[in-house]
Prior knowledge:
The protein is an alpha+beta fold. The protein is built from 10 helices and 10 strands. The chain has 2 domains: 6-99, Phosphorylase Kinase, domain 1, CATH 3.30.200.20; 106-304, Transferase(Phosphotransferase), domain 1 (Orthogonal Bundle), CATH 1.10.510.10. It is 40% helix and 16% strand. The protein has a 6-stranded antiparallel β-sheet with strand order 1-2-3-4-6-5, covered by helices on one side. Strands 7-10 form a two-stranded antiparallel sheet.
Amino acid sequence: xxxxxxxxxGGETYVLGKFIGQGGMSQVYTAHRKNESETEGHCIAxxxxxxxxxxxxRRIKALKEEFNIIRKIPDPENYNIIKIYDMLKIKDGYCLxxxxxxxxNLTEKVINKEKVTADKFPFTEKVRIAxxxxxxxxxxxxxxxxxxxxKPSNILFNEENQVRITDFGLSHFSSxxxxxxxxxxxxxxxxxxxxxxxxxxxxxxxxxxxxxKPDKSADIYALGALLFELFxxxxxxxxxxxxxxxxxxxxxxxxxRKKDRQAMTIKSQLLHLPFSLQEIILGCLMFDKxxxxxxxxxxxxxxxxxx
Length: 307
């Protein structure tokens, strides 16, 4: 999509601005009202399918599913979840329109910043961020929604430093109704099988590596990996976190976690943290889902008790 492209939202003309990010399934741009400054005026974010996917009916269907999922949540911003204004067709491409959050993502704001500077983010503020993410996830799970791709780059901040969970491209309802099962088979069966569209390996649960569709417990595991990285600066099982070969990466992750069923290897990296926080992180990262926290609400309650 070209910078300067004009389109209509609610009777107003907007102009596509700068490119601000890309994932495997999307490209995101800013946009501003035509008669306002791009830097000082009201900006929004516009999420497109990449050009090579823009006419793929399955991808368009998945984008519509993302839009419909968020539309079913009342007042998402009150619960630390991104709001989606609308779904539009601009020229030949479909897109989602949402707020432009100027505060950056958790990777940029905290994790990478601590690696390159001497400035350490306050512990109490990290706990607040962790609690706010868990709160938003608990709200999603209350509506039977599995996020499916919780990771630091999908945690954004607005100008008031408030958390917003974003990127629902892999989200789905966990209900067992026939229609939801059929929908999930189509979206997560065909797409995952053909394109390995199953999440981000460093944050995926062990059962996902065996081919299981992400469920609420997988979100809890992903939150554990995120918290580990937030409070230590590293990923759990970091030797297996980076690889150009996704299949080898996934196999390495799974073998490491299988050998470390009780998360003992990574426990040593958490000893500088309060014991209550160690318990939370390890309780999310257990290899067997039956040994993990059973609800995200219980994780939130424990985080809320850390001062």
